[in-house]
Write a structure and sequence with these properties.
The chain has 365 residues and is an alpha/beta fold. Helices cover 42% and strands 15% of the residues. It contains 13 helices and nine strands. It has an eight-stranded parallel beta barrel with strand order 1-2-3-4-5-6-8-9, surrounded by four helices. Helix 12 runs parallel beside helix 13. The longest helix has 29 residues. The protein is globular, with a radius of gyration of 24 Å. The structure holds alpha-D-galactopyranose (GLA). The site of alpha-D-galactopyranose (GLA) has 6 residues, from loops.
Length: 365
């Protein structure tokens, strides 16, 4: 009888103990470090997201590994402000709500860009062709409205994106903004943004940041803006990379030269394609074998990430954040560019949401 009683008491206690043990193990596994923990004393780790990605199991990866979000497309002008008198807030609002709910930082992307410009920006008004004054008024109204809506949650904005040309023979990209307003539109955009939210950190953001020619052009533009006391506070280096580029030498020279401007830097759109760089879009051909993410491709990619992060850590005094452009290889813009429909594998997590070789190289230091 006593033995039976003892068993009644002991079995549940033992079961509870086993459960606790299991739980402890699960917790130990679950709480294994995310990217943001490895880099806690270096920089904020971020990722670009869509409302769709926040509604899938990718959300778990986001919360475990990242402390900052950027809207991949939802805040681009054409999406958020499709008609002059009509904003579309739903997608951007849901990203902002997720950031608020989970106490994540949020970067705003982007206010002035030559792509995703809605037609109304350059449309005639009352039969009069568009003038630069009209464009400035429209820009200011757009910038002010969007920045005010997210003032409480967005701490930094990519104010001007990709204004510098890749063409060796020109400095500024020949965008519609440039053709109508000259380079002055860049300073105006920063002034409007500063007025809308004096506390926001205002970025100039661009790609091909490590090519010597392009980085020199970006740097001289920023020096000019600084001379004119334009409120530009930080520089975004997109870092869309390829197996062969950038070289370690070019990346280090870029980090050194950009740091010398005395403004904080962020890596804003990082990914490493597994294919050679092709600047012009083309159709997919039978020779594009995209189903094989070979061990060799994975190794080269992991090495590029390792090299990049080693240098980022070396420049940690100047770098305040690193953002990846998309969460996992399930979805990447590189599936559509330069070859539409060719699967790419540019991120740290694979299509099954598992950390890749590149992930382990990034956190092994
Ligand atoms: C640029 C833009 C981003 C994104 C990427 C690729 O880098 O800044 O918003 O569109 O291209 O998709």
């Amino acid at each position: 009888m006593f033995l039976r009683k003892l068993l009644y008491v002991c079995i549940p206690v033992l079961a509870m103990a086993c459960n606790t043990n299991n739980k402890a193990q699960t917790n130990a596994f679950d709480s294994s470090k995310g990217l943001k923990d490895y880099y806690q004393s270096y920089f904020t780790m971020g990722v670009s997201v869509s409302p769709a990605s926040l509604a899938t199991e990718e959300a778990d990866i986001i919360l475990k590994h990242f402390g900052s979000l950027t809207a991949e497309n939802a805040m681009k002008m054409k999406n958020i402000h499709p008609k002059e008198n009509e904003y579309y807030w739903k997608d951007a609002d849901s990203i902002a709500a997720f950031a608020r709910r989970h106490h994540l930082k949020l970067r705003g992307h982007t206010l002035v860009w030559h792509q995703e410009v809605p037609d109304w920006m350059f449309a005639p008004q009352n039969g009069r062709p568009v003038t630069k004054e009209m464009v400035y008024a429209r820009l200011q109204s757009h910038i002010t409205t969007v920045m005010h809506r997210y003032k409480d949650v967005i701490y930094a904005w990519d104010v001007v994106n990709e204004a510098i040309s890749d063409d060796k023979n020109e400095v500024y990209r020949k965008s519609k903004y440039y053709e109508l307003c000259g380079e002055e539109y860049i300073a105006k955009a920063f002034e409007f943004a500063h007025k809308a939210d004096p506390k926001a950190i205002l970025f100039y953001n661009d790609y091909n940041e490590s090519y010597p020619e392009k980085r020199k052009k970006i740097i001289s533009m920023i020096k000019e803006l600084q001379k004119k006391k334009v409120p530009i506070h930080a520089i975004g280096l997109q870092c869309h990379w390829f197996p062969e580029e950038p070289t370690q030498e070019n990346l280090e020279a870029a980090l050194k030269d950009f740091s010398a401007l005395g403004l904080p830097l962020q890596i804003t759109e990082m990914d490493v394609s597994v294919y050679k760089r092709e600047p012009v879009a083309r159709a997919k051909t039978p020779a594009d074998n995209d189903t094989l993410y070979s061990a060799e491709k994975e190794k080269i990619q992991a090495e590029k990430y390792r090299m990049g992060f080693e240098l980022f850590r070396k420049y940690k005094k100047h770098i305040t954040g690193i953002t990846f452009w998309n969460v996992t290889d399930r979805h990447t813009w590189m599936d559509y560019f330069p070859v539409k429909g060719r699967k790419d594998y540019p991120l740290l997590f694979d299509v099954h949401l598992q950390p890749k070789k590149a992930f382990w190289e990034v956190v092994k230091f």
